[in-house]
Write a structure and sequence with these properties.
156 residues, elongated, alpha+beta, 7-stranded mixed β-sheet, 2 helices, single chain
Length: 156
């Protein structure tokens, strides 16, 4: 891990938080193809794939030197793909898992804090994807987490 990469620190923190959810069996940093789900052991499901995009930085001047840009405010989108097995009450399963993810991610004060630089990010916005996929016996849904954070020219 690049020591200056706040992006990587945020992604690692997200993975660690999700791994603490008892209802989640496995967390991976790579999204499996739908065809690969058949080779995933049922004991590894529910599985959450955490996929981070590159941040979208906005240049900011720190005010220390005229004409020098040395601070950036970036938005980092992290996509959470949740795969579960349920063919009796799939909608209830989606509610349970999305609720667990939502509450766990919003509750970590070491990741999100209004007292920068204590936390890694300034704020978080979670957008559940409206469309949920049901492919008997699999349920797939996505949540898009946007973390806003400050970094400098030393890394993203």
């Amino acid at each position: 891990m690049a020591t200056n990469s706040k992006r990587e620190q945020i992604l690692v923190a997200v993975v660690n938080n999700i791994e603490d959810i008892p209802a989640i069996s496995v967390v991976k940093r790579m999204r499996p193809a739908f065809a690969d789900l058949e080779s995933v052991a049922h004991t590894e499901i529910p599985l959450v794939a955490v996929v981070g995009k590159l941040p979208a930085p906005v240049q900011k001047r720190s005010g220390r030197q005229t004409g020098i840009i040395d601070k950036f405010l970036s938005d980092l989108e992290v996509e959470l793909y949740c795969y579960a097995l349920e063919n009796v009450e799939p909608d209830t399963k989606v509610s349970d898992l999305s609720d667990d993810l939502w509450s766990k991610l919003y509750s970590d004060p070491t990741l999100i804090t209004d007292a920068y630089p204590k936390g890694l990010a300034l704020w978080l916005n979670i957008r559940p994807e409206v469309q949920v996929g049901f492919w008997d016996p699999y349920i797939v849904f996505k949540m898009i987490c946007t973390y806003q954070y400050v970094h400098d020219t030393g890394g993203i």
